[in-house]
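ingest -> validate -> predict -> emit
validate: passed (alphabet ok, no gaps, 81 aa)
predict: started
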Amino acid sequence: LIVTAAANPTLQKMLRSLDSRVRRARFIANLSERRWAEAVAEHREILEALAARNAADLRECLRRHLANKFRALRRRLTEIA
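emit:
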């Protein structure tokens, strides 16, 4: 929804391309109920920062969310291997 609201066709095309490549990783990273709850809370914070038009908070929320997702994915891949 964020990308759609941006009304940026180039960004939308890039996201579609990347999304198809990382969909499985996103799923694997959120398999635990704990991580899923954390991700939902992070998305809520992202939406709040967007609604407040607070770029600094949004940047931090997105950075933290992606870092947490990467850590969860790395942990899951280590468990699977």
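The chain has a mean pLDDT of 91.
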